[in-house]
Structure formats: structure tokens, C-alpha cells
Amino acid sequence: MSDTEIKKGLAGVVVDETAISKVNPETNSLLYRGYPVQELAATQPFEAVAYLLWHGELPSAGQLAEFEQRERSLRSLDPRTLQLLDAMPADAHPMDLVRTAVSQLGAFDGTLHEANGWTDRTLDLGRAEYLFAQLPTIVAAVQRRRRGLPLIAPRDDLDYSRNFLWMTFGELPSDAAVDVFRVSLVLYAEHSFNASTFTARVIASTTSDMYSAVVGAVGALKGPLHGGANEAVMHVLEEIGRAENVVPWLDAAIAEKRKIMGFGHRVYKHGDSRVPTMHAALQVLLEESGRRDLADLYAVLEAEFVARKGIYPNLDYPSGPAYHLLGFDTEIFTPIFVAARVTGWTAHIMEQSASNALIRPLSAYNGAEERHVP
Ligand code: SDX
């Protein structure tokens, strides 16, 4: 065993097949069930992308209408979920609140089968649709609660993206804001065996339940090396403050060997395929907001860091400022990532369950030689 090569972080290790998405660093591309993500972001409502990830095909008009109707009927929270959130400390991180709420949904699961007509065959798909519909209402409630504002009920006359913004801010958003938000959700939805998705697959591989797998995935996504980076990007931009501070700030950060949030990627080494699309969406908000200071800071930091280290932005870099300009609290950025990525997670959980093998790697022992209690 001693001469076995260890692949720390499973870097470069292919552990299974998936038909859900293809991340290709050579061509810097990302396909969801064969469709380039850029085409989906340009043309599809987020509900259609969720359907595609779960079913492998884009929905027909009839299938989409039927799914939308079902999704809208599942948006309202059980009063006990609101009681749970109210029982949590006011300064709890929103990711801890979202993780806890998902865990509670799992405890309700038994009562949902009948209520929603789930049969054994459709059980996990029903759960996936339920989580998809519940998470925006949970995230919006957490945002409103942080600001001491009354909760806003979901509206079944609004599509997923517009309703998400309505429940959060209590006013109908502009079409431009809805479209930027929808693009971010499509780009965040799925990304093969990233850390949180693989966490979900490990839990699913023990034949545990979908909620347990999603709770584990939320825990993995919270980390700043992964989903928590979009929140951390905004903290970095606010720490630097203005474009003219970038050079001295970077000098110090690089000297301290700090990881600059929003840059780098385990798979993409020459740029993240999703960044140009999210960057363009961010520009719409920067123009509309007139925030030249933020636009300059964002551009200078990217140019300076790429020039010095040859490490490129990932999706979290444009997404952070975009969510800031949409009006979300910084700590709500990663919960939004949860609401989008729950589509990919649940698709992978169902794929793992459909052709399962318990995930259990080996380790090379480097501890004390065998010895015996005196
Ligand atoms: C996401 O996997 C996915 O698909 C994830 C994701 C998804 O959609 O699910 O794309 C979402 O998680 C994107 C990544 C968000 N994280 C961040 O922005 C955090 C900052 N990034 C780094 O921590 C880092 O780039 C990682 C963790 C993302 C990837 O790191 P790797 O592949 O493990 O590479 P590494 O850390 O070994 O870095 C190689 C070198 C190191 O230098 P040396 O120690 O060899 O001298 O590059 C340096 C690193 O220090 N480096 C960075 C850096 N990223 C890499 N140095 C400073 N800042 C960075 N951001």
C-alpha cells in the first residue's frame, strides 16, 4: 500500500460517470444534458432548466405549464418552519438557518407523500420539486427576518425568479433585474462532481434519504473555498473599497499568501466557462445602478490579479456584486446558490440511487506501528 499514489482532494480522479453535465476545461465549456449552459441562460426560464436536469429533456410547453403549476402550489411554508426560524438566534448565519430548515423538511416528509400524491416511483422527484419550491420562500424569509421586516407570501401568478425577488423585497422587480437573477440561477444550477454535489452523492450512496443528502450538501457549499466564495467576494471588494486601493491591497494579500475569493478553480485552469455570461449580466446592473466606483474596482482587481498570478475569476466573482446590486444582504448570497444548486444536487442524488455503489475510498495509514497495551 505504501507505494500507492495518494490523490489529495481527489484532484483529477474520475470516480463515476454522470449524464447530467459535462465540464470541459479543454474547451472551457459546460453542458447540461448536452445543452451549452450559455444557450440555456439566454433562452430558458429556470423552471425549464430544473426540469431538464431532472428528466434529461427540456419540457414541452404542456409539461412546463404542468410543472410550473405544481411548483407554485408548493411554495408556501409550513407554519412550523417559520416558528423554527423564529426560534433561531438573530445573528445565526443564513446558511445555518437554511441548512436547519431543510433538515426540518425531511422530518415532515412522511406527511407530504399523501398531501402531494407521491407514489414510490415518483417519491424522490416529488421531494426534489418540493425542495425546489420551498427554498426561495425560506431564503426570502431569512432575508426579511434579518431586516426585521414582515414576511411576504409567495404569489402563484409570478414565475420562480420574479416571485423569489418579490418575496425578498416586497416590490415587483424590473424585467432587467429578473433576467440577471434568472441567468445567475441557471449558471449556478449544476457543475458535475463539485464538493457539495459529491457530498450529496456520498450520502445518497449509503441509501440514506434525499433531505439528509441535501443537508450535507448545504454544509459543504457553505465553505469559502466553495459556495461561500460569493459572499467572501463581496467582503473583499468592500475591504478594498476603491480601484486605487487594489495594488497595495493585492501586494499585502499576496505577501500574506491569502486566497483571493472568486478566483481560481479546481477544474477550469484557464477561466470558468460561466464567467463571460454572468459578467455580461453584471454589467447590466452596473450600468443601471450608475455604480462606476464598483465597476472600476471589479475590473481593476480582476485585471491586476490575473496579470500577476494567471489565476482567473470563477462564477462567484461576478455573482457576488450582482446579488449586492440586486439588494440582497451579503450573507444571503450563498443561500441563493443553495436554491439554484438544489436542482443539480437532487438530479445527482437520483442518478446515484439509480445505479448505486456505496462510496468508500481507501486511505494510506501513516500512524504508529502496531503496538500493544502494556
Ligand atoms: C466554486 O468545483 C466546482 O465546480 C465548484 C464550483 C461549482 O460550480 O460548484 O465551480 C463553485 O466553488 C468555485 C470556487 C470558489 N472558491 C473560491 O473562489 C475560493 C478561492 N479559490 C481557491 O481557494 C482555489 O482556487 C480553489 C480552492 C477554488 C481551487 O484550488 P485548487 O484546485 O485546490 O488549487 P490550489 O488551491 O492547490 O491552488 C494552486 C495554486 C496554489 O499556489 P501554491 O500553493 O502552489 O503556491 O494556486 C494558488 C494556490 O495558493 N491559488 C490561489 C488562488 N487559487 C489558487 N492563490 C490565491 N488566490 C486564489 N484564489
Automatic annotation (TrEMBL):
GO terms, molecular function: 2-methylcitrate synthase activity; citrate synthase activity
Record carries keyword Coiled coil: no
Reactions the enzyme catalyzes: oxaloacetate + acetyl-CoA + H2O = citrate + CoA + H(+)
Protein's UniProt name: Citrate synthase
InterPro entries in alphabetical order: 2-MeCitrate/Citrate_synth_II (IPR011278), Citrate_synth-like_lrg_a-sub (IPR016142), Citrate_synth-like_sm_a-sub (IPR016143), Citrate_synthase (IPR002020), Citrate_synthase_AS (IPR019810), Citrate_synthase_bac-typ (IPR024176), Citrate_synthase_sf (IPR036969)
Keywords from the UniProt entry: Acyltransferase, Transferase, Tricarboxylic acid cycle
One Pfam family here: Citrate_synt
Pathway of action: Carbohydrate metabolism; tricarboxylic acid cycle
Family of the protein in this entry: Belongs to the citrate synthase family.
Top-rank lineage group of the source organism: Bacteria
NCBIfam families xref list: cit_synth_II, PRK14033.1
